[in-house]
Amino acid sequence: MHEFTIIREIVIILSVSLLIIFLFKKINIPSILGFLVAGMIIGPYGFKLISNSQNIQVMAEIGVILLLFTIGLEISLNKLMQMRRMLFYAGGMQIIFTISISTLIFKLFDVSINSAVFFGMLVCLSSTAIVLKLLQDRNELETPFGRISIAILIFQDLAVVPMLILLPILSGGENLTFGKIIIQLFYAFGAIIVIIFAARYLIPKILFQLARLRVREAFTVGTIFLLLGTAYLTHLIGLSFAIGAFIAGLILSESDFSHQVTADILPLKDAFNSIFFVAIGLLLNIKFVLDNFFLLILITAGIIILKTSIVTLLIKFLKYPFRIALIAGISLSQVGEFSFVLSQSGLSLNLIGNNFYNAFLASSIFTMLLTPFLMKLAPVLGYKMGVIDKSNKEGINLKELADHVIIVGFGLNGKNLARVLKETGIKYIVIEINPQTVKEEKSKGENIIFGDVTRGEVLRSAGIEKALVIVFAISDPAATKLSLRHAKEINPNIYSIVRTRYTNEIDDLITFGADEVIPEEFETSLQIFSKVLEKFHIPLNVIMKQVSILRGESYSMMRKDEQGISSLVNLNELLAAGLTEAYYVDENNLHIGKTMKELNLRAITGVTIIAIVRGEKTITNPASEEKIFDKDTLVITGTHKTVDDAIDYLNGVVKK
User: Phi first, then psi: what are they for 407, rounded to 5°?
Assistant: First the structure.
């Protein structure tokens, strides 16, 4: 029964993982960390429920392949170009500085240059899976530090590809000359370019033929075949499976089938990634950790401090406020999942010894486990340690600002509001935290200043004392609450309007002093609600009344399980009653020239034409010989159903 051992191991992994996930959910910690803990508990250094992890390692490898494939799917050239400054500068410099400084540190401990560079590669990568999950759970994906973290993570994920190529070169030792390095790099990148062009030509054509079959199983199986086939092809030429998977994802990201491919592959990725993190936990030598506990604590602290410092200084150099820079730095202070992939390859290539490997593995897992707590602490540290950034350097005359509007954030909503205020002649000033945006908009003559709105001094620089309204158009819940409190302390009479993406923020924002909270989720629901009522020809004033009721008391009716339907107008009575509708006759209408008698609308649909509006003239109760002309407006009356039928008939729709 040895061949069925893998089934037993999967059952053990799933049963323990489910229990750990349940417990971690209760204490609000990401499930990924639960998988790490589960691996430690059931592994050969724990309760030895799984003593041989070879089968698990194979599944973990599939998890890495799927992870790189989905990263390739999510990356497009347009997306890269939009964030190119942050992506290439911050991401590139972070990797260069981290590898360089780490290499120098390891050289101090008499580590060979090849191994020191390799250790630097391991340290420089952060965990895409953990950071994205935490940002998503905290509603911080669209915050400034969230966007910065994502840009750096994307560059790190891209950098894994050349790092995997460089590993065999680093393992070459002293016999490897500069010329040989160039030749190997040329061979590796040349092979990748050939595969990319071949895949770009073949993969979309193959998927198109699979899609034409209209058999879902064929499309899913074909996608997995292309994914694993490309990965195996790169393996055959001496590169890693992961590089081929990334290439396949990158090619498919530009095709028409990317969304369907993502839907098919995502469940597989989540399942195998779970096993990947369990596999990492299985490798942790608990005895080694206990024997070297204090040393591992020092290494863990060193990694966190080094990575936090590098990212913080880089982002601060880009002229972002210290608070944003520090939160981004702390968010990326852990070691990433791809570092474990590199470490496995490095172990087989003798770039890392067993003791170094165990130390790296333990300290890296510690950094991952500490990440949720550090990210929760980061905003507090960022605010308390933040240096007050001087704003209003542009020379805006605050004496001229009174009864004005302060717009916080110059994204899409902020720009639209500024445009309307400018057209209506209302004075306003914008506070923006992105220095590049401030520079660009300032050159266009926009009334904008740079600053971190969580600082009271920045609000004063925008004339908060004399302002009439402040509008928060940013996607940073923590910063909004903090700055809202400061705004109300400085000017208790200011009217505050807050835009939020999430309904669970409404009560907190009101507690912090928001006069009006506009949640995007409910506004979308109200738009849908209005369009549905319009389709049933509910009068506009009634629709507006319903919307007003639902918006009342901060959308409380829509947030409660028990709906206050009694406060809404009884729409059934309106639907049962008759209504009047106007129909405009355009120049292409097929009924132009017909008389009322020839049109015969009442007999066919049950609707009566009570008037014709022709220019400035209104013909009431038109006679049977009255003709229809283009640009006429027919005023018709009937029930909701008959009016719908009449409009279809007037449009030339023939119902079977």
Answer: -105, 120
Higher pLDDT, 329 or 349: 329
d(CA 203, CA 226): 7
Q: What is the pLDDT of residues 8-27, one digit of tens each?
A: 888 888 788 788 878 887 87
What's the whole-number average pLDDT of the chain?
Answer: 82
Query: In the prediction, which pLDDT does 564 show?
Result: 47
What CA–CA distances, in Å, run from 40 to 205, 352, 595? 45, 22, 86
Q: How many residues in the chain? A: 656
| Helices 128-137/337-348 angle, 10° precision | 170
What is the torsional sign of CA 597, 598, 603, 607? negative
CATH class, domain 67-270+285-383, is mainly alpha
Distance CA 635, CA 582 (A): 5
Q: At residue 518, what are phi and psi to the nearest 5 degrees?
A: -115, 100
E-strand ranges in 313-467 read 405-408, 428-432, 448-450
* 486-510 burial code (b ≥16 CB/10 A, e <16): bbbeebeebebbbbbeebebbeebe
The mean pLDDT of 252-272, rounded to a whole number, is 76
Q: What is the pTM of this model?
A: 0.72
At the topology level, CATH places domain 578-650 in Alpha-Beta Plaits (3.30.70)
Domain with CATH 3.40.50.720 in the chain: 398-514
pLDDT tens per residue across span 416-441: 889 888 888 889 999 998 888 888 88
Asked whether 210 and 218 are in contact (CB, 8 A), the reply is yes
Q: Are strands 495-500 and 469-472 parallel, antiparallel or unpaired?
A: parallel
d(CA 55, CA 50): 10
Report how far residue 150's alpha carbon sits from residue 145's, in angstroms, rounded to the nearest whole number. 9
The whole-angstrom separation of Cα 182 and Cα 349 is 20
CA dihedral sign of residues 179, 180, 185, 190? positive
Maximum distance among all alpha carbons in the chain?
Answer: 105
Among 206, 260, 263, 256, smallest CA distance to 229 is for 206
Q: What confidence tens digit (pLDDT) does each residue in 593-621 have?
A: 999 999 999 888 889 999 999 988 899 88
C-alpha span between 472 and 138 (Å, rounded) = 18
In sequence order, the 6+-apart residues with CB closer than 8 A to the CB of 325 are 145, 311, 312, 313, 314, 315, 316
CB 124 within 8 A of CB 116: no
Q: How many helices and strands, by DSSP H and E, does the chain display?
A: 29, 10
Cβ–Cβ < 8 Å for 407, 430: yes
Give the pLDDT confidence of 446-477 residue by residue, as tens digits: 999 988 888 888 898 899 999 999 999 888 88
Q: Which CATH architecture has domain 398-514?
A: 3-Layer(aba) Sandwich (3.40)
Which residue spans of the chain are classified as CATH 1.20.1530.20?
67-270+285-383
Query: Rounded to an integer, what is the distance from CA 251 to the centroid of its chain?
Result: 21
Residue 178, CA distances (Å) to 112, 175, 183, 314, 541 in order: 17, 10, 9, 31, 78
Outline which parts of the chain fall under CATH 3.30.70.1450.
578-650
